[in-house]
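Design a sequence for this backbone.
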């Protein structure tokens, strides 16, 4: 009886397990289907790998492997490109010279050159020669303008200044040490220019660089054509500049220099902050748009000026500029060499280690 009961119990248990197996399998399949996202349901994210950084940006971004398009160009290709560019400029210059020479060979242009040889007699007589104050003003101007250009370019490229200058009476007027140096040079340059202009009019030598007749314009064109043709006009700088020189000096002294001063003052910390009407009438954007092109003008003027000094009789020209003499000798040349050494030393010394002690005399200097 007991055996019969146990057999019956075992059979019933086996039957129950057999009956529950399909149900368990069905439940597992339903759970698996639940985990699979339904494409039509926007609430369920797609099973895609994460491709976006989850969180804040990393402190250091590893540079990606450079591809063929991102690799720097080889040096030899850049050298070839520079040579081709120089060759193209040389061809254009040669073509310009040939064209102007052909133009000046025509009879009507020969008549033009005869009527306007490149210079005219000034309306007011002026004593020939150059006084020593002209030579000194010329040297100080060259020294300061070179350092002004250097510091100005450094300001444009300086992303994170290493030193700052703060005036004693205005803690909010903190600027980089490079900006202070640039503005200090500007003030010295303007003082030198003001003394030069005053002496120019006191002595009557303003006639040299200020046009006194409309004949200046056709004579300036004539001188320019003669320079381009390499059949240069006769130099009489000791007595009178040709019209192209006069026009260039007039533009430099009375137009470019005031523009540089006005635009630089507008961008500096010396501009009055409370002058709202004046600031609206003269927006700082105008100053920024003009200041750099004016600097480019000075660079082009210096290059052309120095080139013509050496190409049109450098010994006599350097004696005019550095020795106050019309003789053809080496005195002016050696003074010029000494002045170039001084300018080079100023260029090398224009760094925070040398500038900071000077700046401390007028304010406080601090690190970043």
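Sequence:
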């Amino acid at each position: 009886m007991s055996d019969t009961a146990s057999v019956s119990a075992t059979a019933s248990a086996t039957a129950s397990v057999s009956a529950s197996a399909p149900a368990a399998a069905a439940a597992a399949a339903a759970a698996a289907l639940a985990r699979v996202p339904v494409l039509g349901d926007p609430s369920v994210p797609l099973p895609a790998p994460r491709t976006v950084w989850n969180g804040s940006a990393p402190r250091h971004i590893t540079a990606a492997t450079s591809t063929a398009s991102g690799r720097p160009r080889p040096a030899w290709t850049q050298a070839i490109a520079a040579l081709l560019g120089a060759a193209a400029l040389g061809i254009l210059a040669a073509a310009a010279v040939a064209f102007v020479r052909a133009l000046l060979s025509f009879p009507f242009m020969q008549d033009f050159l005869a009527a306007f040889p490149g210079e005219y007699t000034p309306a007011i007589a002026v004593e020939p020669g150059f006084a020593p104050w002209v030579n000194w003003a010329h040297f100080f101007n060259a020294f300061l303008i070179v350092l002004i250009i250097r510091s100005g370019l450094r300001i444009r490229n300086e992303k994170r200044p290493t030193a700052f200058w703060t005036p004693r009476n205005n803690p909010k007027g903190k600027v980089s040490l490079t900006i202070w140096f640039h503005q200090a040079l500007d003030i010295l340059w303007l003082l030198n220019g003001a003394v030069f202009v005053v002496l120019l009019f006191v002595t009557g030598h303003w006639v040299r660089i200020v046009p006194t007749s409309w004949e200046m314009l056709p004579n300036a064109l004539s001188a320019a054509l003669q320079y381009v043709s390499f059949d240069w006009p006769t130099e009489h700088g000791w007595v009178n500049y040709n019209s192209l020189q006069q026009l260039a000096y007039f533009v430099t002294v009375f137009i470019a220099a005031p523009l540089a001063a006005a635009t630089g003052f507008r961008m500096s910390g010396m501009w009055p902050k409370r002058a709202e009407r004046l600031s609206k009438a003269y927006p700082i954007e105008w100053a920024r748009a003009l200041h750099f092109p004016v600097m480019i003008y000075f660079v082009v003027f210096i290059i052309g000026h120095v080139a013509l000094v050496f190409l049109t009789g450098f010994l006599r020209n350097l004696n005019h500029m550095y020795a106050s003499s019309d003789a053809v000798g080496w005195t002016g040349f050696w003074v010029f060499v000494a002045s170039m050494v001084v300018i080079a030393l100023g260029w090398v010394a224009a760094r925070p280690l040398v500038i900071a002690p000077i700046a401390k005399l007028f304010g406080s200097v601090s690190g970043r």
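The beta strands are 163-167, 175-176, 363-367.
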